[in-house]
Amino acid sequence: MSLKEELAALKARGEAKRPPEVVALMHRAVDDLRRSGILERVPRVGDRAPEFTLPNAEERPVSSRELLARGPLVVTFYRGGW
Known about the structure:
Layout: H1 3-16, H2 20-35, E1 53-55, E2 61-63, H3 64-70
Antiparallel strand pairs: 1-2
């Protein structure tokens, strides 16, 4: 199964667990975001990210500049438990 197929199946399973009115609201929100033009402003693969300093999992500040000085840097985002 391709990634695209897996994501479509995941979406279908998630939507099947929600009331139709909630799914419709979610779809409207996505459509609104698409129409807003936000997709034209999001970073693309290969774009250079701005320098930043953020807390790590131990609440210590981590500088992207310092990490890049040691080699390539991969940044991931997770939404947490909310």
